[in-house]
Amino acid sequence: MTIVCYGDELESGQGLDEDDELVSGQGPDEDDELESGQGPDEDDELAPGQGPDEDDELESGQGPDEDDELESGQGPDEDDELESGQGPDEDDELESGQGPDEDDELESGQGPDEDDELESGQGPDEDDEHEVELP
């Protein structure tokens, strides 16, 4: 028969003791430092992708995060710089012929543009200089 006396130092897992230092995973303890992924702990530092944590730095593409910097094309982000042709973006500079853009400079003959200078004979333009041969 084992008698438990006041001041008895118990080994981890044998019983409860206010000074008992539990090894991670053996049980709950307010000072127990849990390894990432073992369970919730207010001081638990989770590695990216293991779970939600207010201080968890997610790698691009792993999930939403207000500070997550997404690479172009991975998803919507107010600071996401899209490469031309990947999608609409108010700052997206499109190459001529890829689509409409208020700053898109079209080459002559590709389409209508208020600043498009057409070569003679290509079509109507208010600034188009037509060559005229007089008899």
From TrEMBL:
The molecule here is called: Uncharacterized protein
Organism whose genome encodes this protein: Knipowitschia caucasica
Give positions of region: Disordered.
Answer: 1-135
- Renumbered to this chain, the Acidic residues biased-composition regions fall at 8-135
